[in-house]
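REQUEST FORM: STRUCTURE PREDICTION
Request ID: SP-0412
Submitted by: Lab K.M.
Chain count: 1
Length (residues): 203
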Amino acid sequence: MKQTYRSRTAFVLGWVWLAFVAFNVWDLIAHYTGQASMVALAVLGALTALVYVVALRPATVFTEGELVGRNPLRTTYLPWASVEDVTVSHSINVEHGGGRVLRLWTPMSTARERAKAQRRSAPRQQRGRYRTEPTLSRSEQAAVDAFAGKTHADWVGEQIRDRAEAARRRDEEATPARVTWSYDAIAAVVAAVALVVAAILAG
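STATUS: Completed
RESULT:
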């Protein structure tokens, strides 16, 4: 079963930006005014390529056989049995291949998110004679306990570690990671550069 983890905020804002760009491109084409329109299209194209590369494309994907790290310009395919260690700081760092490190672009852990997680893990003080907070069910309390003091990145890092240990228990082969270029991201950057060149030539 395939599972995908990414920054939800960046993903939503990326699609909002695409909707904004689509409307503006239609308006610029419908009311084309020469160089001014070309410059505006070039700016929109450059910003859209940036948004796609850093907000829409990055993802951490779990498949049955491997961890797939989709970073802005490259994709790494790492078999679970090849994962040697996982540490989480600002990003999730996956050690493999005797010293190599795969830094996953998403999800990341910000200082604000980590401080919020620490506040969640602190014992709550009861004020007054009566409790004002709702009583959680057993499953809800278990979920709260599982995430206590942890960010989303911490939780994903634990899932990677668990899957790697399970793969080693099954005696799966630890093969080297495969790294490929992200041709879609490169195409977006090339298209943006082409629009900038066209805007310059239009002048």
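NOTES: Residues 107 and 152 are 7 Å apart (CA to CA).
Reviewed by: T.R.
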